[in-house]
């Protein structure tokens, strides 16, 4: 079964039409220090133009409580959490969580937290958003019963190899579908085509 697709780091309305055209499975909005950072208010304006069946992901890194509260009340489908995640924080969160794991080596996998609210794990490089993939071999024998979301330096050139090696349930792309002006419709189309045609292009 082909993995689902998440396009992360949407910042402007001009990027929305191609997401709707291909009915992208998940769209991520970044609420952490990044060139792709948006406000919750701006993200809501962008979300208003998305197809209703596209799920929205709020991406955070140890957010201050005020921002977290705003996000929890913002109607997002999933909270993607980067950084340290405490048990009391998990209890407070009233929505499904994807825990992001910054992968340096196999020891990084020791940061995985098992909780019924955590429905997936985003395996990313040690510098998320850098466009650099991590060593996929680290995940070669991983076994989890939740969504396995592969991120970090994915693009249309390496996505087939990535799927072959990791067998993720979701692939998460950001810089790999960007040009100087932000998300590039042509790069998105090529990435989506590769993923949807997986199995026919090997």
TrEMBL record:
EC number of the protein: 5.3.1.24
Catalysed conversion reaction: N-(5-phospho-beta-D-ribosyl)anthranilate = 1-(2-carboxyphenylamino)-1-deoxy-D-ribulose 5-phosphate
Pfam families reported for this sequence: PRAI (PF00697)
Protein name in the entry: N-(5'-phosphoribosyl)anthranilate isomerase
Top-rank taxon, per record: Bacteria
Coiled-coil ranges from the UniProt annotation: none
GO process annotations (BP): L-tryptophan biosynthetic process
Involved pathway(s): Amino-acid biosynthesis; L-tryptophan biosynthesis; L-tryptophan from chorismate: step 3/5
Listed SUPFAM superfamilies: Ribulose-phoshate binding barrel
N-(5'phosphoribosyl) anthranilate isomerase (PRAI) domain sequence ranges: 5-193
Molecular-function GO term, any one: phosphoribosylanthranilate isomerase activity
């Amino acid at each position: 079964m082909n993995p689902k697709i998440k396009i992360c780091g949407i910042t402007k309305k001009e990027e929305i039409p191609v997401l709707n055209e291909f009915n992208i499975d998940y769209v991520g909005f970044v609420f952490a220090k990044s060139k792709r950072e948006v406000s919750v208010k701006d993200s809501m304006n962008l979300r208003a133009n998305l197809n209703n069946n596209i799920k929205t992901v709020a991406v955070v890194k140890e957010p201050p409580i005020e921002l977290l509260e705003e996000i929890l009340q913002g109607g997002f489908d999933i909270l993607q959490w980067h950084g340290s995640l405490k048990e009391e924080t998990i209890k407070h969160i009233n929505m499904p969580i994807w825990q992001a794991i910054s992968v340096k080596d196999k020891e990084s996998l020791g940061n995985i937290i098992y909780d019924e609210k955590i429905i997936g794990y985003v395996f990313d490089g040690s510098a998320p958003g850098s466009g650099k993939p991590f060593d996929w071999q680290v995940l070669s024998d991983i076994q989890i019963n939740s969504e396995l979301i592969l991120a970090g330096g994915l693009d249309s050139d390496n996505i087939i190899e990535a799927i072959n090696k990791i067998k993720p349930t979701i692939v998460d792309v950001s810089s790999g579908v960007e040009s100087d002006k932000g998300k590039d419709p042509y790069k998105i189309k090529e990435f989506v085509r590769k993923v949807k045609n997986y199995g026919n292009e090997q």
